[in-house]
Specification:
Blueprint lengths: L4 E3 L4 H5 L1 H10 L10 E3 L14 H24 L2 H4 L4 H18 L6 H16 L4 H6 L3 E7 L4 E5 L2 E4 L7 H14 L10 E5 L5 E5 L9 E5 L8 H6 L5 H12 L4 E5 L5 H9 L8 E5 L11 E5 L13 H9 L5 E4 L6 H10 L6 E5 L3 H14 L6 H11 L2 E7 L5 E13 L2 E15 L5 E7 L7 H6 L15
Parallel strand pairs: 9-13, 9-14, 10-11, 10-12, 12-13
Antiparallel strand pairs: 1-2, 3-4, 3-8, 4-5, 6-7, 7-8, 14-15, 15-16, 16-17
Helix pairs in contact: 3-5, 3-6, 5-6, 12-13, 13-15, 14-15
Bound molecules: adenosine-5'-triphosphate and magnesium ion.
Magnesium ion binds next to helix 11.
């Protein structure tokens, strides 16, 4: 079934033109059995597209924006910037309010009280912080901020992307804020070095690309740091997976199966990896390797590593592979690699195969089968010349479990499959799905309906679970009806 198509009777378009449809049907030669006509469904209007503020509101904002810019220039001229650092917040606010009042009076601009308060706060943010980004960064309900040039800022709340009504004055303003952010963490971005990926001081992940590579203005994405990452219970409560799946995953991680979390961008891979790590015993020595340190492990014995890209002169790189090779000499019980995307795959598989079982990583793939293909590709790209059968046998003996994370069309994030790797059949890696998210349809507001179910297959590792003291009841593998 293609969800984009619907039967004629159900579409408003068909209802609107019944006469034309009837005439067309009469003119057409009589079909042997009237096949249902399919009509393309109009895309539902997006909430984000409707978020444009009313005209009056927009004009008011524009006016405020202009005043703010002028005042900002004025402030920069009048404030002693070097004294700023030592000034208390109260003094600074006082100073800003005074200069603002003066300028407004000089130009005979009248603002109401609310506008004054907003203006003063924005000026304060502009001088001391990150301007228009400041309220978005402070807003705890926002998890991601995506900027497409100065006039379009999208934010993600509860899994949904919305166009915010904040924007930058122009590209120069946006560039100034980007520069402020990256220089605070000792990085640089400009025409000759037009992109940067960094972890901010508060732990947020920051990526920016500036013109001319970004064609219509700088592109920025910020994944805000969440102090309390979602745990297993939160994820079960949010409907990301079922309690049975959680019990199964607990058995899998505790009995040291090697797990790969597969998923698309922003599908919840890191969140899942972090939650799975909570099942690791406190006595184990865990080493984590990430591009940007996001994982928050609760165990006491944790060593964290962050790889480093080359600097502007192309020097100083410490790749994930370098970290991984080094980690193997540091006597870990388990290794967790934030994301495997390149040549480090070889060392990861070897680690999984040789005594560091219970290791985990994520990969970028849309389903478990694709995940395996991704691993094969990474091995080929790393320049390892091995017959495909040997590659596959290496993968099948290293990886035990693939957990698929997905961000569905309605913005919800779910674990759509738990698939075990059971060995090789000829040249092919054999896999069995043990749990999955069974979609049943579309609910109101295009909400995806469905339920989690076992597939009816007993785990390939059930004997291992039993021997390790995780005696899961056979009923856990029975399919559930929605
Ligand atoms: N089940 C869930 N329910 C609600 N929000 C979730 C869920 N899983 C993850 N999130 C939120 O979604 C955002 C993206 O999650 P996460 O960083 O884990 O994704 P990712 O797949 O690792 O992304 P990337 O590909 O960018 O590394 C985060 O803000 C996270 O808090
Ligand atoms: Mg991630």
């Amino acid at each position: 079934m293609f969800s984009r198509y619907k039967k004629e009777a159900a579409t408003p378009a068909a209802k609107a033109a019944p006469a034309a449809a009837a005439a067309a049907a009469a003119a057409a030669p009589a079909p042997e059995e009237a096949a249902p006509k399919v009509v393309m469904r109009k895309p539902a209007p997006r909430a984000s597209a409707m978020a444009a503020p009313a005209d009056k509101e927009r004009k008011r904002k524009e006016r405020l924006g202009e005043i703010k810019l002028e005042l900002h220039k004025e402030l920069l001229n009048n404030l002693n910037l070097s004294a700023l650092e030592s000034a208390s917040e109260q003094d600074l606010r006082h100073e800003i309010n005074a200069i603002a009042s003066e300028v407004l009076q000089e130009r005979a601009i009248v603002l109401n009280r609310e506008e004054r308060v907003t203006l003063n706060q924005e000026l304060f943010d502009e001088v001391t912080g990150l301007g228009p980004l400041e309220p978005l960064l402070k807003d705890e309900t926002i998890s991601d901020i995506l900027i497409n040039g100065p006039h379009q800022i999208f934010v993600e709340r509860n899994g949904k992307l919305q166009l915010s009504d904040t924007n930058f004055k122009d590209e120069k303003h946006l560039l100034r804020i980007i520069d402020k952010i990256v220089s605070a963490v000792g990085r640089r971005v400009d025409e000759s070095n037009p992109y940067v990926d960094a972890r901010l001081q508060d732990g947020s992940r920051f990526n920016a690309m500036v013109p001319p590579i970004a064609v219509d203005g700088s592109l920025v994405s910020i994944r805000k740091f969440k102090k309390d990452k979602l745990g297993i219970d939160d994820l079960v409560n949010f409907g990301a997976f079922s309690e049975e799946m959680a019990a199964y995953l607990q058995a899998a991680v505790s009995t040291r199966l090697n797990v790969i979390v597969s998923g698309g961008t922003g599908s919840g891979k890191t969140t899942t990896l972090n939650a799975l790590s909570s099942f690791i015993d406190n006595s184990e020595r865990i080493l984590t390797i990430e591009d940007t340190a996001e994982l928050q492990l609760q165990q006491i014995h944790v060593g964290r590593m962050e790889s480093r890209p080359p600097n502007v002169e192309g020097k100083g790189e410490v790749s994930p592979r370098d970290c991984l090779k080094n980690a193997l000499r540091m006597r870990p019980d388990r290794i967790i690699v934030g994301e495997t995307r390149g040549e480090e795959v070889i060392d990861m598989l070897q680690a999984m195969n040789t005594g560091h079982d219970g290791s985990m990583t994520t990969i970028h793939a849309n389903n478990p089968r694709d995940g395996i293909a991704r691993l094969e590709n990474m091995i080929a790209m790393a320049g390892i010349e091995m017959p495909i059968k040997a590659v596959r046998s290496q993968i099948s003996s290293a990886v035990n479990l693939i957990v698929q994370a997905s961000r569905l069309q309605d913005g919800s994030r779910r674990m759509t499959s738990i698939t075990e790797i059971t060995g090789m059949e000829g040249d092919v890696i054999s896999m069995q799905e043990v749990f999955r998210f069974q979609r049943t349809g579309l609910g109101p507001e295009n909400k995806i309906m469905g339920h989690f179910t076992a597939t009816g297959v007993r785990s390939h590792f059930s004997e291992r679970f039993r021997l390790w003291g995780y005696d899961l009841p056979p009923s856990i593998y029975e399919p559930t009806a929605g």
